[in-house]
Specification:
Shape of chain B: globular
Structural class of chain A: mainly alpha
Number of helices of chain A: 13
Distance between the termini of chain A: 54 Å
CATH class of the largest domain in chain A: Mainly Alpha
CATH topology of the largest domain in chain A: MetI-like fold
Radius of gyration of chain B: 18 Å
Helix content of chain A: over 70%
CATH superfamily of the largest domain in chain A: MetI-like
Order of helices and strands of chain B: EEEHEEHEHHHEHEHEEHH
Largest interface: A-B, 18 and 24 residues
Distance between the termini of chain B: 34 Å
Strand content of chain A: under 5%
CATH topology of one domain in chain B: Rossmann fold
Shape of chain A: flat
Oligomer: heterodimer
CATH superfamily of one domain in chain B: P-loop containing nucleotide triphosphate hydrolases
Helix content of chain B: 25-40%
CATH class of one domain in chain B: Alpha Beta
CATH architecture of one domain in chain B: 3-Layer(aba) Sandwich
Largest sheet of chain B: 6 strands, mixed
Structural class of chain B: alpha/beta
Number of helices of chain B: 9
Strand order of the largest sheet of chain B: 6-7-8-3-9-10
Chain lengths: ~325, ~250
Amino acid sequence: MSDVGDASELLLVRSAGNRRRAGRVLTYRTAAVTSLLFPPTGIPALLHSLRASSLVRKQELEQARLAGQRARDWAWISVGVGLSVYTVAFLVWLVQANSGGVRKAFFSSKLLWSGDTWHSLLKGFWINVQVFAYAETIVLVWALLVAVVRLLPGRACAPVRWLATAYVDVFRGIPSLLVILLIGLGLPQARVPIVRDFSDIQMCVLALSLTYGAYVSEVYRAGIESVHWSQAAAARSLGLSYFQTLRHVVVPQALRRIGPPVLNDFIGLQKDTALISVIGVLDVLNRARFANNAAGSLTAYSMAALLFLAVTIPFTRYLDYILRRQKRLLAGQ
Amino acid sequence: MAFLEIDEVHKHYGQTQVLNGIELEVELHQVVALIGASGSGKSTLLRCINALETIDQGVIRLDGDRVSGPGIDVDSLRCDVGIVFQSFNLFPHMTVVENITLAPRKVLGIGRRDADDKAMRLLQRIGLDTKAKEYPDRLSGGQQQRVAIVRALAMEPRLMLLDEITSALDPALVGEVLTIVRELAVEGMTIMMATHEMSFAKEVADKVCFLHAGVIYEEGTPEEIFSNPRRELTQTFLQRIIEAGRL
């Protein structure tokens, strides 16, 4: 008997301290007081909290819990609204600081409202758009090819596998800026056949395709490897060859999974087209530089930034949309 | 000479000996059930027969032709030998009818219309023609497995390998899958099946093989194995099955 008693005491041991009870009322006083840092929502938070306390004293616990819940809601609204309002206010103050110095440097109206400047920048930006449009198209195909070669099975394919791996390692390891310089200036100087007749823009497309092809091929590879081996086994067991299995079963499933990460890399590529200015292409960055030099301001850079945002923001929104949809689809399964 | 001859087949993964000299003959139109504990080599044996796994020693012959070892044409072997897996393995990005017609079209070169017609006839037979345009994730497990069987049948194999095809199913869905296998057996398909459904094996199999540690420990007719097992481990195994209420 005594043994059993000891055991149950061990299992149901209780601390003597000030224990919380399941039914206690929370008044969120600390949160409410803290949220006074942003009075418009802090004051209602505090009022609800005080009311909760007085209701507790009157033993109206249901009403007290409701008031406590309201105090908590208002305190959270303080965090959300208060932080945002103060952040925006800080930015507005920053722009007006130095008696408008920031505004003059970044948003001088002389350039901002000049149609000629916008026209020139747009002409330059068109080059950036062409470069990333061509590069992205090439990368889509080229990266898949590299990924498939890296995954070829068997000892016979070891040399090509090794070559593909070396390519990926090298081009992932060199900054895009250096690749653009080496290819854009080096190849024409060395008069390498075929490539020497490329225009500057074609050189840039080549350089960025090589760099981003290495990145994206790794994404493809991860996507292909993420398709469960049993899918390939099922396809092979039906008599499909290795390449038929890749073509009809593995790659289509991989592509559905890698859409978002590839688009993510493409946003990086779009921004990196600004680097092509180093080999003297009249892209948006060089044109902005000229405009700035003439006007003694940095505003044209801000304008170039806006042009990039006009492309990348819709792109990222679209990416978010796809990710959300994919999550929903996965959740539905 | 038997239709399928498995002669002294050995296979190991690293240090583990999975198949340890399997000897088995399967006649045309025969249904052979492989029973035994998990890890006894049932699935590996089936996967070796259609060359999803290579074997280390021994020979497998199908209709007199050697179908194991170097230099064999695995793709044409797999056209002759269909396999259905425990986990269905339908292609999730294709509709039911696309799943079924992929191999006939790409491997046998059958036109889309002919392949579709044939797939629809097969689906009608199993009562799933209304699901032809659905994706696999809209189907129940039992329906998916029935489609997987039809997908293998569309290649008109001469031998069907069934690898624990009801093990991943709700108990309520097992029946509809077994019905198809029963029909196949009645129509004269040569079948080798690894299974835990003892009563089903008892009912449809012509021969039952009890595998243990990579060898066929005891084989015989269903009556011999289930009612009157001669060797000790077979008796223990069946005793456990009976205690679990599975026979």
